[in-house]
Amino acid sequence: MSVPHCRFCNAPLETTLIDLGEMPLANNYLTPATIKDERRFPLHVRVCGQCMLAQVDYAVPADAIFAAEYAYFSSYSDSWVEHAKRYADAMIGRFGLGPRSLVVEIASNDGYLLQHFNNRGIPVLGIEPAAGVAAAAAKKGIPTEVAFFNVSTAQRLAAAGVQADLMAANNVLAHVPDIRDFVSGFPVLLKPEGLVTFEFPHLLNLIEQVQFDTIYHEHYSYLSLTSLDRIFNATGLRVIDVEELPTHGGSLRLYAARSDSAHKMSCAVNAVREKERARGLDRLEAYKGFAPRVAAVKAAFLKFLSEAKAAGKKVAAYGAAAKGNTFLNYCQISRDDILCVFDRSIVKQGKLLPGSHIPIVAVEQLSEVKPDYLIILPWNITDEIVAANTALRSWGGEFVVAVPELRKIS
């Protein structure tokens, strides 16, 4: 078999981070009629020895993932909407945004973020490829362009007079198959002194906290400042500031500007660069040895399930999240192991999880099922889920989180 090549610099990809085997699409929720059409694709993450970009070596076409029926709606997470509001308040205060400004969000989903700027009288524009969630944004009064963002899209909008003071590309950078073409669009659409923020789960945390379930096909890349410095430098951007955030198990928020702008770089940038160098992210050795740690998480979870079944306990799950689908399929879990998964999204309720085919039900059914154990699949919002489902304790149920290690929350 030929060696795959880096999606950014075209160097051979010879180092494996983790090979999870054949997996279904993590957001492809099923009905009994569509089970027969379910497909699986290789899910193998490799690291480029030239630019240090971690990436899947097989790219499922983006239009097969982010279709009109794409099922992820950001507004169903209260904590995520609140995070978006804090972001908007911070950006408005820091950059003095007002009625003459323009905020453009890439992958704007259902308007969960832009609504906070819009409510403050600041003009906004969303760019979102999934027509279904874009329609939900439009109902909130958020102007939304249904398109994939790249150089061509940026040039078309710029020619129509669109120039952004602030662009937000939060938790989308990992989702693009052609990362060079995607990033190259930002300097085209930014005003000369405009800024763009990128938020993404930090690869450093993925490795150190065994967050392998954040790996799925629509995450084409797994990002660090080390790799993005190289990508930005080649595409007309430069990093001027960085913040470390607790979201998604530990994220970075990068502030970038056009290479020819007058913005000065903060000392925080070099601090994160040094942190990554100290952990070895600029050397391939740091990426080896991950697979055995992932296997240990699987073994601990299967042991827990075996013991629960032997004791006659009822096990259900909460949160039909993409990361949960990677986790369940890697552990080879089925509806014989987990009764159902509770989820707030009416778009997902009544459907089946990809691969495992576990039924998705409304959260209101929790008190009917009365599980002894409730597996929290989106562990990044554990506190929110525990606080919203205190009824579990009334019948002696316990919450369980499996990543990075198995723990019970009474």
Q: What do you see in this structure?
A:
- By secondary structure, this protein is an alpha/beta fold.
- The protein folds into 2 domains: 74-287, Rossmann fold (3-Layer(aba) Sandwich); 301-409, Rossmann fold (3-Layer(aba) Sandwich), CATH 3.40.50.720.
- Helices cover 30% and strands 22% of the residues.
- It has 14 helices and 17 strands.
- The protein has helices spanning 62-65, 78-95, 114-118, 131-139, 151-159, 179-184, 186-189, 203-208, 225-235, 267-278, 290-310, 322-330, 366-369, 382-388, and strands at residues 15-24, 40-47, 54-56, 103-106, 124-127, 144-145, 164-170, 190-201, 221-222, 237-245, 251-258, 315-318, 341-343, 360-362, 373-376, 398-401, 407-409.
- The strands form 3 sheets. The protein has a 7-stranded mixed β-sheet. A 6-stranded mixed β-sheet has the order 14-13-12-15-16-17.
- β5 (124-127), α4 (131-139) and β6 (144-145) form a beta-alpha-beta unit.
- The longest helix has 21 residues, at 290-310.
In this structure, how is the largest beta sheet organized? Answer: 7 strands, mixed
| Percent of sequence in beta strands | 15-25%
Principal-axes shape call: globular
Mean pLDDT over the residues:
94
- Terminal Cα span: 49 Å
What structural category characterises the helix and strand content?
alpha/beta
Q: Any idea what the CATH architecture of the largest domain is?
A: 3-Layer(aba) Sandwich
Which strand order spans the largest sheet, edge to edge or round the barrel? 6-5-4-7-8-11-10
Q: Identify the CATH class of the largest domain.
A: Alpha Beta
Stretches with pLDDT under 50, minimum 5 residues: none
Oligomer class:
single chain
